[in-house]
Amino acid sequence: MQYKLSENILTVNLEGKIDTNNADEIGAELLELAKKFPAEKFILNLEKLKYISSSGLRAMLKLGKLKKNNLQLVEASREVYEVFDTSGFTKILNIQKALRKISADNLIELGRGTSGTVYKLDDENILKVYNSKWSFEDVARERANSQAAFVEGIDTAISYDVVKVGENFGIVYEMINADTLEKVLLDDAENIENYSRRLAEFIKEQHAIETDFEDARQRQISMAEKVEFYSADDLKIVRQFLEAVPNCKNFSHGDLNLTNILLQNGQMIMIDMGEISSGHPVFDLSWLYFMYVIRKRSAQRHGVENPMGPKIMPDAMWKTFLQTYFNTTDEKAIEHYERAILPYSFIQVLNATLTRPIPKEACNFYKNIILAEFERGIIPIDF
Asked: Which residues pair with 179 in a beta bridge?
């Protein structure tokens, strides 16, 4: 039995057949290895396993009880996976089916973003290849989120299977003959306010859908507790802001920006569903506010171009968006809503420091705005 220990991960390769003739022997060897390396994650590579009987399944069950959450079975062929699935083992063991392997070498690149690159796979499908920092679990979660959102009635792309592309992972999606809203706005600047109204109507429609995903407010609280820029007193203030957000089950995209909205034959579609949750619309609105208003104003104030883009939402477009979303042209009402969502913009961007580098000076600036808003008084989230 071949095995390899690397960075606290023990990988064992199983081959051939596991049946009544050898199941006891193989099971004993696996248990011995599990006891020899008790703290290590235990991975069984089933790529070369052709068959497993009920005796083999029982051996896997014993190993699973010993290693519990530290056991993972990977690269199971369709036939072997079916044995595990029909016997109910996929519900009690972490088993991954062997992924379809695709080469992107000769595919046409359609676009490139922070999370990966999109290619045309064929006339009906596209392939999104995620960057190396995305694990299988990350990509599988994004696919599951996309499917769950589609089932709940969210206007999003249909996702198919997770695949292996070289050393990286990818997802096959339906082919969408569409441009991002950002590109549409750049190409048709004269109609920006019209698109802004349509965007507000679309976002409000998606927010009205009740879902049962991860709680958005609790996610933000959990992230804030890990942000290193907060003192204990700072964190108490941030928690007060977040706890003031009403409990609700509205759909929340989690990374709302104009590159994640596609326009296909006049219809808007959301993509990149890795951060979806259930919660109050304030989280989506405040992120959009930061991305396209606060960041741009900050860059202009310091006399530099916005280093992270985007640059294409004029203040008039943001104002039109708010007027449409909240169905009011009253200036005081718009000012009230904008001030209500302001601190949540900075809370979310500081939470983002957990996954992306942001200069310390900027983080301290953002934190001071949160503290100043607290001194002014927390505005009730009344929408």
From this structure: 263
Query: Is it the case that residue 304 has pLDDT exceeding 80?
Result: no
Instruction: Give CA–CA dist 162/98, Å, rounded.
Output: 10
What sign does the CA torsion over 299, 301, 304, 310 have?
Answer: positive
Q: Would you tell me the crossing angle of helices 232-243 and 331-351 to the nearest 10 degrees?
A: 130
Long-range contacts of 375-380 (CB under 8 A, 24+ apart): 378/240, 378/241, 378/244, 378/343, 379/336, 379/339, 379/340, 380/244, 380/340
Q: For the chain, state the CA radius of gyration.
A: 25
- The position carrying tokens 């204990």 is 232
- Residues 278 and 250: beta-carbon distance below 8 Å: yes
Cα–Cα–Cα angle for 127, 131, 133, rounded to 5 degrees: 140
* 377 Cβ neighbours under 8 A, 6+ residues apart: none
What letter would DSSP give residue 293? I
For 231, list phi and psi in degrees, rounded to 5.
-80, 175
Handedness of CA 307, 313, 316, 321 (dihedral sign): negative
Contact present, 143 and 172 (Cβ < 8 Å): no
Contact 139, 172 (CB under 8 A): no
Q: Residue type at 116? A: G
Give the length of the chain: 383
SS3 286: helix
Alpha-carbon dihedral sign for residues 213, 217, 218, 221: positive
The C-alpha angle 66, 67, 71, rounded to 5 degrees, equals 140
Residue 118: band (very low, low, confident or very high) from pLDDT cuts 50, 70, 90 = confident
pLDDT tens for each residue of 25-64: 999 999 999 999 988 899 999 999 999 999 999 999 999 9
| C-alpha to C-alpha distance for 5 and 169, rounded to whole angstroms | 23
CB 350 within 8 A of CB 367: yes
Taking the C-alpha atoms of residue 31 and residue 329, their distance in angstroms, rounded to an integer, is: 70
Phi-psi label, residue 154: left if phi above 0, alpha if psi -120 to 50, beta otherwise: beta
How far apart are alpha carbons 298 and 322 in whole angstroms?
20
